[in-house]
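explain this:
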Amino acid sequence: MGDSNETRTTARYTSLDGLRGLAALVVLIHHCFLVSPQLSAAVDSNGTGPFEPWVWWTTFTPLHLVWAGQEAVYVFFILSGFVLTLPFVQASRPNWAAYYPKRIVRIYLPVWASLLFALLMAWTVPRVASAEFSSWLNLHDETPNAVADAFLLRGAGALNSPLWSLQWEILFSLILPLYLIAALRIRRAWIPGLAGLLVLIAVGNMMYTALPVYLPMFGIGVLLAVRRDVVKGWGSKLGAWAWMGLLTASLVLLCSRWLFVQLPVVISMASLGGVILIFAFIAWQPTIALGNNSLVRWLGVRSFSLYLIHEPIVVSVAFSLHETNPIQIALVAVPFSLLAAEVFFRLVEKPSHRLSRFIGRNIAGRGRRRDEASIA
């Protein structure tokens, strides 16, 4: 099966685990900050003030990077495209028949467990709207529909709203073969292909249509995976100053929605920022070292668990303390979320991952045995 080759190839990109962990932490802080009525109103305002000075500085300057949760999800989408494609463009290719059940188990079991956790938190700490709370927090005062949320294909309600992104993860996972076929056909013209995907995102952005915004982000990751050796070759030729300039450009682009609020193509700009950031984490040694830092890697390995269970904790902390100060909420919710993510990872996500691998091995093994029998 070529396991050693796969291990060597995948090991080059362990820094992406760290990037995923940092993105998950940003999403956590994002929800802590949305508890503030002033910050939540600023996010909903589309840049039209007036704002208190601290609100303006926190929202409409590069400081927003600390809680740019939406942009962190864009990075997740591009990363998913890259990471899911890698095994299929390496010497040892997985079995498609095994891929689908593995992927479904890998996603759905933790999601269902996170919904049970969210229901438990909602029953323990009732969500009762108040004029003192932010509009985002008051959205959680609704009758939960965990059964509808569990399917993922139609988004998610307020019970555990980060699950909205899993709708697109599942859809991409189902049609990954089409992405691969398209990417391999245009592999020599991948830069125009990348530009075309960014244009498609911009058009979707201007039309306020979700599908042409989110699905092309996965396609960007697929193209990067198909041409990963070229991308790494470019990175090896850049000096430190060029890298620092690119990284600065990446962060500005990621924050473009807040710096250039009147532009209608900010999601496309943020996606380009995500591409450059991922480029840095696979091709520039300082960012690779950051991604491979033991604490950051720990966060990355548990990033899916953290993403799934943090919002019910943030909401419960805010309702139970009747508090709207984002810093005070973060001081309580962040450590509790990290601890809960560790427990959830050990009890739910890790066993789900083992089960998905077991199912994949069994299906692939049966396929090999059928092939051998037909040859014999």
